[in-house]
Amino acid sequence: MTCVGEPLSLFHWIADDSALNALSGRQAPAGRLFIDTEFMRERTYWPRLALLQVNDGQGCHLIDPLATTAPAMHALLEQRPLVMHACSEDLEALRIGCNLAPAEVEDTQIAAALCGHDLQCSYQKLVETLLGVSLPKTATRTDWLKRPLSDEQLEYAAHDVEYLPGLYHELCRRLEALGRMAWWQEECRRLVQDCQRVMPADDLWRQVKGAASLDGPGRRRLRHLASWRDDSARERDIPRSFIIKDAELLTLAGRGARQRSDLAGLGMHPSALRRFADDLLRVLAQADSGDIPPALPGMPEPAIRDRIKRLRDHFTGLASKHQLAPEVLARRRWIEALARDPEQMPEPFTGWRAAIIGDGLGELM
Questions:
Q1: Which of the residues 89, 272, 329, 357 has the least number of beta carbons within 10 Å of its own beta carbon?
Q2: Buried/exposed 297-325: b ≥16 CB within 10 Å, e otherwise
């Protein structure tokens, strides 16, 4: 086991467009880049891209988004296959930070899962398991927007892409041996599509915890409230919870309100109540009419619960047979959706999973 403890000096700090454009000019057309990002969003609606780490096979480059422009970063990354690890949030940060929607992404966390590792296996764990290198875990909680970045932060960030090429090539070798490269390509395409999908404003209420407990008028009020909250948070670039928390939103949707005194028992911060009371009353008044959203699935009936258990046991057996973690083959929400509506096969059960599942689900249903 190799422990990385010495300062890493083999990286280039890029803090102006001329250096970034020079880096772009040195890349082979459509050449693969190994990348990671650091971003912050604790107090903002949108993720703020704070650092872009790039390994182009010739070295590690740390690019400062606070000192370079979005078009220059976009020019480096566009039209290139990007290798990343657990990248769904990174893709959002790149979309917001440099208007990038990559056509091809290869996620090494997905590759590892298809080789038998846990679905959420970390980069550090894989580097240690597959490459025999123990990476330091310092600087995991840090303010990446603060400048200057410390040597410790820079070294930590560079390590995140230093071993990514080695990890990629080892996982490719294993996937080829298992005959699962096509599986990986399918899953990565699905990942990119999922990350580019935007939930309609009228469906945001479905994400509020406890929404399934509401009656029809409550769901209608929640739909209006959730859409208004999202618009307000976007406009101010603050988290939705800074406008009104989920629990407060659910309570208000359940009981309604017609005047300021009705809002007093919500538990909202007094400043937020003063700022948003008029808006909340206006939205609730608008929510008194219109169609009622369909109910969300509640607690499954006993027959459905039995079907879920049979399906879960069946998929667990299939996953074990193919040396996969059960949640890689069939996640819980897919199983529940299939149990509730056997005529509608969840999309992830098509493709490579269909070949494993076969036609043996009829008796279980």
A1: 89
A2: eeeeeeeeeebbebbbebbbebbeeeebb
Which residues does 237 contact at the CB level (< 8 Å), separation at least 6? 44, 45, 46
Range of the domain at 267: 201-286
In the prediction, which pLDDT does 270 show? 83
Confidence (pTM): 0.92
* CATH number for the domain harbouring residue 263: 1.10.150.80
Together in a domain, 274 and 308: no
Pairing of strands 48-55, 33-40: antiparallel
> Left, alpha or beta for 177 (phi > 0: left; psi -120 to 50: alpha)?
alpha
- pLDDT reading at 266 higher than 80: no
Q: 169 and 54, same structural domain? A: yes
Read off φ and ψ for residue 145, nearest 5 degrees.
Answer: -85, -10
Q: What's the pLDDT tens digit per position in 74-84?
A: 999 999 999 99
Task: Note whether 252 and 157 are same-domain residues.
Answer: no
Sheet architecture: strand order including 105-107? 11-14, 60-63, 48-55, 33-40, 82-84, 105-107
Q: Do 311 and 188 share a structural domain?
A: no
SS3 label, residue 2: strand
Q: Is the pLDDT of residue 316 over 80?
A: yes
